[in-house]
Amino acid sequence: SFLPKFSIHIETKYEDNKGSNDSIFDKEAKDLEREVCFIDIASDEIPERYYKESEDPKYFKSQKTGRGQLKEGWRDTHQPIMCSYKLVTVKFEVWGLQTRVEQFVHKVVRDILLIGHRQAFAWVDEWYDMTMDEVREFERATQEATNKKIGIFPPAISISNISMPSSTRSAPSSAPSTPLSTEAPEFLTVPKDRPRKKSAPETLTLPDPTK
Questions:
Q1: Of the candidates 76, 109, 156, 183, which lies 20 to 30 Å from 47 by C-alpha distance?
Q2: Which residues are CB-contacts of 9 (< 8 A; sequence separation ≥ 6)?
Q3: Range of the domain at 30
């Protein structure tokens, strides 16, 4: 991250149950304060802009497996069933903003996981017959396509030795400029040939009392 005190860590485990194992991450997060959050891919609401009826588990039915149309209470009636357990750790160690930012990130991650797992279920006919090698190749191609779409912009820092114009030097204090030279700028340099001002004349001439 570009913020040195900001990190997101997500660990995943899978088990053939309905989410009944509350101690699955006891070893990894023994000393951490945890909050358990259940995600129901069929019933939980998602942001409206991401909703697609074709990816709604309540209406989707797989042609290859016969699975789908997950109605209320589907976890107690559908087989086979698997639970994807996620351990999400968010750290934003900036005083004054830590709690609010961490809570916001947890909410965003939850929405991402909900949408992603709904899509994984709704796309089952596309990946159901894949071998593990084909899955890895699909992941590689997807990552490459994503990088091309988003673009990769490496950070760049350039330093110029061009002297600052006078208009910049006279800028207000709210927008200061930093000189690249260690020498004092010209407008702060005292001219060498300027005569010193004297506080009193060198000789004092008194008037002649006889005149």
A1: 76
A2: 87, 88, 89, 90
A3: 6-138
